[in-house]
Amino acid sequence: MNQNIAVGLDIGTTKVCAIVACPDENYPGKLRILGIGRSPSDGLTRGVVTNIDKTIKAIQTAVQDAEQQSGVKINSVTVGIAGDHIQSFPSRGVISISRPDNEITREDVERLIEDTKKVALPPDRKIIHVIPQEFIVDGQNGIYDPVGMSGVRMEAVVHIITGLVTAAQNIYKCVQRAGLHVNDMVLEPLASSYAVLDDEEKEVGVVLVDIGGGTTDLAIFEEKTIRHTAVIGIAGKKVTDDIRKGFGILTEQAEHIKINYGYAYKPAIVDNQPIMLPGIGGRPPIEIDKEILCGVIQPRMEEILEFVGLEIQRSGFSRHLSAGVVLTGGGSLIKGTAELAKQVLGMPVKIGTPTGFSSGLVREIENPIFATGVGLVIHELKYRDRTGLKAVINNGKGKTILRRMKEWFEEL
Questions:
Q1: What percent of the chain has pLDDT over 70?
Q2: How far, in Å, CA of 39 to CA of 60, rounded?
Q3: How far apart are CA 326 and CA 339, in angstroms?
Q4: Where do the structural domains in the chain lie, given as residue ranges?
Q5: Which of 108, 238, 320, 358 could bridge to 30 as Cys pair (CB 3.0-4.6 Å)?
Q6: Quick check: 136 and 99 in contact, CB under 8 A?
Q7: What are the helix (H) ranges across 178-288?
């Protein structure tokens, strides 16, 4: 595989998606989308692997499709991790600078990041990301890169994201058994933010809400820094289940009706044309109108958005979100979702689609369902060399998730 090519693997509850891309030399900062592979997934529940064999098969199918489309042999991938086992919290650390010139070096930053990780965690949990909010040098706050500055005392305020060791190991195991190497494992809302948010939104304050199949992922940004993350274990699959149970139809039929005829907000319905639901086991088809279907979908979507609202309140940043909410993920494609979110959350809302492409499969990729996959590619290209402050921050002393995962296996 060409070293400029990156592959993002989004292992979701309802789909596995592999995206192959590379930077465009003619358009700096833009991506060429070389291939997209998709496969239905039913080996996960709420973002966590529950059937290894089904997940491996789905990964292999998606990767083969992406290989065929791109003409690239895929050996390694950057993988997303989500699930309601993900937890995050703030932490602080402090160190002293004792060398004669008092100049802060990269090693000092590494030492400080290690100090912030000295938190009491249960044995079944490990740190996935350590994301600095700011550095404080001799009482001077608001510093984002202290390397080269002079000081005798340096502090850091960080956002620590943890996950269950076994959940991460199972994803790692599935990818490995599918014949692939794991470059890195990234929190999915963090990955999605790379694809659908711009720097201006991150600066003034924005909430990214990724409504997937099994989980709704949330990330809050302010002053260009991630401030709060959460994973809610209720999402689009619950909406499909409600339709299936409500009308007594098969899951595939319920999913088809949700995507093609579903509305999340009754006032958004333009023409209330009847929909024919197929009968089961030779029974005659049933006719319902869109308002009745909306009556099933809207309460569940309201519930998801109310959970999002509670997380925003819990974060303490609800007054600092001038850019409002950006919705992405497959669940955001249900018609009327943006209008419902605006009403429930009381903020400006827009649908976020991946951007920043120069050529290749541009039309196909500009869809909210690919936000995480595109973000994983961007993360891989951004931090591939594992040098510089951000690589240290995200991976702790430059360790890749792969090395840390091997350590976890040995510890258990």
A1: 92
A2: 9
A3: 12
A4: 87-164
A5: 358
A6: no
A7: 188-196, 199-204, 236-247, 251-261
